[in-house]
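Internal ticket - ligand job 381, 4'-deoxy-4'-aminopyridoxal-5'-phosphate:
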Amino acid sequence: MTRSQVSPSTTADMRRDRVTEWIRPEVRALSAYHVPEVGDLIKLDAMENPYTWPSSLVDDWLETLRHVSLNRYPDPHAPCLKAALRERLGVPAGMDILLGNGSDELIQMIDMAVNGPGRVVLSPEPSFSMYRMIAAFTGMNFIGVPLNAGDFSLNMAAMREAIARHRPAVVFLSYPNNPTGNLFDERQVCELIEVCPGLVVVDEAYSSFAGRSLMDRLGEYDNLLVLRTLSKMGLAGLRLGILVGSPAWLNELDKIRLPYNINVLTQTSAEFALRHYDVLEAQAAQLRIDREHLLARMRALPGITVYPSQANFILFRVPAGKAQAIFAAIKADGVLIKSMHGANPLLADCLRVTVGAPEENAAFLTALTTALQNVLLEKNP
Ligand code: PMP
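stdout (structure tokens):
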């Protein structure tokens, strides 16, 4: 058949066959990370900080960007930025910093570095979905160990057993845990670090809202790495993740870092933001206060179970079978939250809301109250 004789549908079939032949089955089996359309909705779905900077600070920031050389590659080692992070995050002496284009990229780098036939990534579940997804597309085996159903604490017997059986190359512990919001018991986390043959990455994406960290225990364990991000502190758009640990580990991971992964605008902007760290800290403190208000107001509503939170989001369970309807009703009232129903059996009928600015939280509470009233009325007409 000449090229002109090939029908469009045959061309499409041939392309699909070739995709099937060459794209790895584990990649084809994945669904891309879903980010919903926001439009005019109040955005309480992604654990972002709702606050921008005061306008005087925005002016000063824009001024610093004037001096950035866009024609040059960024400094691949970002020494000034690392020095500022070292001071602000309290990185212990003797520990190094590795930067990523978001902490997602650092998770990917860790998996790529330890990957090999039969190698396992392990995490309690439900937890941050990218632990499982990145393990899948880097070709590793992922083992999810269910958390305790009542309070989402670590199931230590199951964790010990899984670690002994699978000898994971890396264990990810989200501390506090996304999407459940709780902090695992620190002694249990330390026990897991002790029994793990490989790396343990304590992911402290939400540490600003918990006031707890294993950063100062890095020196005690030679298999511990601490992962941070600026995303939840108000800089999600910059994409800056920070991995802290001993040079022995980080020097190896650095070899698979793409040389210019932190662009010049991010480096300059993050340095600027860290010079004004008090602004970020004040915003986090406000969100912690507002989280407590929101928790109290939600707990007063009939028909839902509200889980404690040490993060900037709250997980709650609605009447059985009603998660989709309540999510949709809240959205129809202009507020976008996240439905966790279906993500994991322990999250059946669960929704997650990010703590926003007071007026956003109020809009969410009004929408939730109405949605619950309608659902409860339906049940008892
Ligand atoms: N870790 C956890 C526990 C998270 O919840 C998230 C984002 N939702 C990340 C890491 C990734 O954050 P980022 O890539 O924005 O640094």
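Auto-summary: The chain has a mean pLDDT of 95. The chain has 13 helices and 13 strands.
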